From TrEMBL:
<dbReference type="Pfam" id="PF01593">
    <property type="entry name" value="Amino_oxidase"/>
</dbReference>
<dbReference type="InterPro" id="IPR036188">
    <property type="entry name" value="FAD/NAD-bd_sf"/>
</dbReference>
<dbReference type="InterPro" id="IPR050281">
    <property type="entry name" value="Flavin_monoamine_oxidase"/>
</dbReference>
<protein>
    <submittedName>
        <fullName>Oidioi.mRNA.OKI2018_I69.chr2.g7543.t1.cds</fullName>
    </submittedName>
</protein>
<keyword id="KW-0285">Flavoprotein</keyword>
<keyword id="KW-0274">FAD</keyword>
<feature type="domain" description="Amine oxidase">
    <location>
        <begin position="3"/>
        <end position="179"/>
    </location>
</feature>
<dbReference type="InterPro" id="IPR002937">
    <property type="entry name" value="Amino_oxidase"/>
</dbReference>
């Protein structure tokens, strides 16, 4: 890899992001709202989570009101290092504060990626493009490493950085470029 390409890749910024799915005991689901409200929580010491909502897919497919608690950045990282008991306490406090009752938790998910040795983040944000315009940055980033060797993925599509369709579009674009080169060679 050239030093220029290395510098471009190094200036991509990575973010931490966590979804925590929570199921309450079935008889408590009636205590939750029927609307799929998206509730933002204040970013302070008290709150580990930044937002709370219901998962519409789980509701539609399983008729269960699964709560989704989300958190990001340093709080996302912290989440991954909590013991299951500590996390359960945080979930209980959040539900009590938001919905006003003591929850009986049936189960909850706890991703632990950030505790892995080589973990750097969940996905990228749009790059800061140091010394370059957005267009210049992403067109240099997307030149092949060597002839017909492309790097693809969400990080390489500035407009859709961090999203699955960004990854999909970079795959399509690189495949088109390779096909065009092959056709031109025939
Ligand atoms: C919690 C969370 C929620 C998200 N929610 C959404 C959402 O709602 N909507 C949305 O559009 N996007 C969402 N995303 C982002 C989306 O998942 C990514 O943008 C997308 O998966 C990126 O695809 P990719 O192919 O670039 O990379 P990845 O999906 O990360 O694929 C890279 C692959 O390479 C493999 N790999 C890594 N290193 C090596 C190696 N050395 N050798 C071999 N294989 C290797 C990895 O195991 C992985 O399978 C979310 C991401 C997270 C983490």
């Amino acid at each position: 890899m050239t030093p220029e390409k290395h510098e471009l890749i190094s200036s991509l910024t990575l973010v931490h992001y966590v979804n925590c799915f929570v199921l309450l005991e079935k008889n408590q689901e009636d205590l939750l709202s029927d609307k799929n409200d998206f509730i933002c929580l204040p970013n302070n010491e008290e709150n580990l989570f930044r937002s709370i909502e219901f998962d519409p897919m789980i509701l539609r497919l399983h008729r269960r009101k699964a709560i989704v608690l989300k958190t990001t950045a340093e709080k996302g990282k912290k989440f991954n290092f909590l013991t299951r008991e500590e996390l359960k306490n945080c979930i209980e406090k959040t539900i009590k504060r938001v919905f006003g009752f003591n929850p009986n938790i049936e189960n909850f998910s706890q991703p632990t990626w950030a505790a892995e040795e080589n973990f750097q983040g969940c996905y990228t944000n749009m790059a800061l493009c140091p010394g370059k315009t957005f267009e210049q940055f992403y067109s240099s980033l997307n030149t092949p490493l060597v002839d017909n060797f492309y790097m693809i993925g969400e990080a390489f599509d500035g407009a859709n950085a961090g999203y699955a369709h960004g990854a999909y579009l970079t795959g399509l674009k690189s495949a088109e470029q390779i096909l065009n080169k092959l056709k031109a060679g025939n």
